[in-house]
Amino acid sequence: MATLIIIVITSLISIIAFNRHELFSKFEFNAYQIYHRKEWYRLITHGFLHADWMHLIVNMLVLLSFGTVIENYFGELEAQGILHFPVLWYLLLYVGGLVVSSLISLKKHKDDIWYNSLGASGAVSAVIFCSIFFAPWQKLYFYAILPIPGIIFGILYLWYSSYASKKNRDNINHEAHFVGALFGFIFPLLIDVRLINIFIHHLLEF
User: Fold this and answer.
1) What pLDDT is recorded for position 142?
2) Rounded to the nearest 5 degrees, what angle is found at the Cα of 13, between the Cα atoms of 7 and 18?
3) For the purposes of burial, counting CB atoms within 10 Å of the CB of 164, is it exposed (0-12), middle (13-18) or buried (19 or more)?
4) How confident is the model at residue 8 (pLDDT cuts 50, 70, 90)?
5) 112-155 pLDDT, tens per residue?
6) Angle 53-79/2-18 helices, nearest 10 degrees?
7) To 10 degrees, the CA torsion angle through 153, 62, 121, 149?
8) How far apart are CA 39 and CA 17, in angstroms?
9) How many Å apart are CA 38 and CA 110, to the nearest integer?
């Protein structure tokens, strides 16, 4: 349910912003505005804006797929008495992914008034990698076609995000993808460090 609510809210705000471009300048991620003018809300609001329909649709479809999986995992942890208030933890994962994934960009571009970024990709990466933690060999479909074990996909994803970030040849915030992914992977340990045993157990099932 939490995933669907996030998708609906994000979609509505993004669609409204498509026709009201002043919302982009006010709420998108701009490190200069955040650091020098203390507009900290941008660390969260940028995740509810998207550049175009394709950007929005891809992020929301991926979130729908993996977000519902995480909700099920958290529900199982609640049933086992390991986790309480699973919806709250899910929101912490998502919003935390938005904020934490932006911190490197904030430091790197704090004096660049022209640097802007938007989209939920950092949070979505966190959700994907949280699912990899709980099921490392579960098949993920690369480009919705090629099945790849989650742990292999994760390694390739991190490598490519790091490589693309250094090359800086496009307008994609690969740093946010990388940091968001790492945050999502370690997030279960913030719930209970003993959950590492679940990851190790499933990893050794190969």
Assistant:
1) 59
2) 120
3) middle
4) very high
5) 999 999 999 999 999 999 999 999 999 886 555 678 899 999 99
6) 160
7) -10
8) 19
9) 11
Name the token pair of 12.
Answer: 């509505």
- Partner residues linked to 146 by β-bridges: 142
Cα dihedral value 76, 135, 58, 97, nearest 10: 70
Say how many residues make up the chain.
206
Residue 163: enclosing H or E segment and its boundaries? Answer: helix 150-167
C-alpha to C-alpha distance for 41 and 59, rounded to whole angstroms:
21
Q: Which two tokens stand for residue 20?
A: 């009201």
What does the pLDDT look like over 156-185, one tens digit per residue?
A: 999 988 888 777 766 678 889 999 999 999
Higher-confidence residue of 167 and 45: namely: 45
Which of 184, 180, 206 minimizes the C-alpha distance to 117?
180
